[in-house]
Amino acid sequence: MLTVESVTGDPETHRKRVGELLGASSKSAGYPFEPQPVDLMASLDGTEIGGLAGQILYGWLWVMLLAVDPAARGRGIGTALMQKAETMAREQGALGINVDTFAFQAPDFYLRLGFVEVSRLTGPTPPEDRIFYTKTF
């Protein structure tokens, strides 16, 4: 009998197993599933003030998380993180970068960095649009 339930315990172990299943399926289709992590930290005087988490997969950098401490914003830290991630992606031969944000977060930031809006989800929850951007090298 099939059951579907919430994962209990270590979610990283679960995610690793799901990644292995996806990898086996992709490999059998001729597309190895080999994500390359891109994890960056920005610090000032030894204190972490921002970071980026993403992965390069199938020729694209996918930025999943980007954050800068509110007290440190407006000093180019987010730009520096994105520039370093772009450099790493280019060195890996990536075609470009994909990222999403909410309208209340940083849409103008990505436009300034040369990203183009490719899709937008609107709806009541959250009350702001979710915007998807891409930047092709």
Gist?
This protein has 137 residues and is α+β, with helices and mostly antiparallel strands. The protein is built from three helices and six strands; from the N terminus they run αβββαβαββ.
Account of the protein in words:
It is a single chain. The protein is α+β, with helices and mostly antiparallel strands. It has 2 domains: 1-33; 35-136, Aminopeptidase (3-Layer(aba) Sandwich), CATH 3.40.630.30. It is 28% helix and 36% strand. It is built from 3 helices and 6 strands; from the N terminus they run H-E-E-E-H-E-H-E-E. The protein has a 6-stranded mixed sheet. Strand 3 (60-68), helix 2 and strand 4 (96-102) form a beta-alpha-beta unit. It is globular and about 55 Å long. The mean pLDDT is 93.
Indicate the radius of gyration in whole angstroms: 17 Å
**What gap, in angstroms, lies between the N and C termini?**
49 Å
CATH superfamily of the largest domain, called what? Gcn5-related N-acetyltransferase (GNAT)
CATH architecture assignment name of the largest domain: 3-Layer(aba) Sandwich
Q: Write down the overall mean pLDDT.
A: 93
- What is the helix fraction of residues, given as a range? 25-40%
> What share of the residues does DSSP label as strand, in percent?
35-45%
